[in-house]
Amino acid sequence: SGRLDGRVALITGAARGLGAEYARAVAAEGASILIADVLDEPGEALAAELGERAAYAHLDVTSEADWEAAVAAAAARFGRLDVLVNNAGIANSAPIEHFTLAKWNAVIAVNLTGTFLGCRAVVPAMKAAGGGSIVNISSVEGLRGSPSLHGYTASKFGVRGLAKSLAVELGPAGIRVNSVHPGFIDTDMTTRIDPANLVIPLGRGGAPRDVAGTIVFLASDDSAWITGAEFVVDGGMTA
Ligand code: NAD
Questions:
Q1: Cβ of 84 below 6 Å from ligand 1
Q2: Which ipTM score applies to this complex?
């Protein structure tokens, strides 16, 4: 039996990259999983791979209507919702003088507003069920600054802060809210970064499975007394 038997998780941006690995990992521990993304084909394929306890929902995290439909789909298909992982994200960069308002609005909309809408959408179901676990995917860029990442950095500090205000407000309802801060992970988002140029004490860049264990932990009762906390998973890069 798994650590997440009977639980239901919704993971955004789960069609590929880190989110897909989180979906595989929570499914392997027995959870049912709603894979949510705007990439329908890989999302459907992953749901098919994971079998009966998995389904795909088209969810643009910036859309209130999509959130309403996705939470309803989780309830209709699996009967409950215990875990939300706000993983969908985009990155862009430019020196500040060239950082257009369009660039800023795009990254804030998906990473920060999308996470806010997700948290707001799942709280009624989690309150009714007596609890739940929300994980906001931040970054090492939610802990420190890097040149040109202005919008990304602001969004990742934002979801870290949102986890804390929600943790304080929702603790009495049994809903835990934490942030996870991955370092360099080899995905489609980071193809232009060479980990050899980074100082990583553990000696290599990360793979999605290096972060998945922390997600399973935060989804499970092993973290029952942890809320408003930050989990840095970066091979020591920010130590
Ligand atoms: P990725 O680009 O491979 O995956 C991101 C996923 O989010 C994609 O499937 C994409 O379709 C989806 N997405 C984008 N916009 C969306 C929207 N509006 N609605 C729904 N889904 C949307 O990137 P990844 O590396 O797997 O990143 C996943 C998360 O981890 C992001 O929040 C990212 O900021 C964060 N992160 C990544 C790294 C890294 O090194 N790769 C490090 C720290 C944090």
A1: no
A2: 0.99
